[in-house]
Design goal:
By secondary structure, the protein is an alpha/beta fold. The protein has a single domain, classed as TIM Barrel. It is globular, with a radius of gyration of 16 Å. The N and C termini lie far apart (about 40 Å).
Length: about 160
């Protein structure tokens, strides 16, 4: 028997969530009904208050994972460097925001963060001590249009 497990990215259901055709609980139920083992989660889209949600929100997450027997596997993290109209985030602000994402991934039971395309390379080295402390790895997405020969990817 194979030891390969299944995992679904909730990115594939984000339209259902955004248009309120499915709640987070509906998605977990759907995964359970389809015998999916794990989940890739989008905290900034699907968890109120992320990256610093309330205890109530975190407790609800725990309940969903337990009720539907879904293992949190990976957090899909987008670093929005344009939070303010008049400026981009500083390097320190970028790192601090991602440290919060690392802490959240750890709390949610995930050991991996997928940093989506266009995450600036300068954040990686300062994150390493936090990754080690919270036992969370970061993986960089090489998205379509960002081949290995592109300067952004090379960085």
């Amino acid at each position: 028997m194979s030891s390969i497990k299944t995992c679904v990215s909730l990115y594939s259901l984000q339209s259902e969530y955004m248009h309120k055709r499915m709640s987070l609980e509906d998605m977990f139920s759907f995964l359970h009904e389809n015998q999916v083992d794990g989940v890739e989660f989008l905290p900034d889209q699907m968890m109120h208050g992320a990256p610093e949600p309330s205890e109530e929100t975190l407790n609800d997450w725990d309940r969903l994972c337990e009720t539907y027997q879904i293992k949190p596997v990976i957090a899909d993290v987008f670093l929005n460097t344009n939070l303010y109209e008049n400026r981009t985030l500083t390097k320190k602000e970028c790192v601090n925001l991602l440290v919060k994402e690392i802490k959240l991934a750890h709390r949610l039971g995930m050991k991996l963060i997928r940093l989506v395309s266009f995450t600036p390379a300068f954040v990686l080295e300062p994150l390493l001590p936090y990754c080690e402390k919270y036992d969370v790895k970061v993986a960089l997405e090489i998205h379509a249009g960002l081949s290995f020969d592109k300067q952004k990817t090379k960085e």
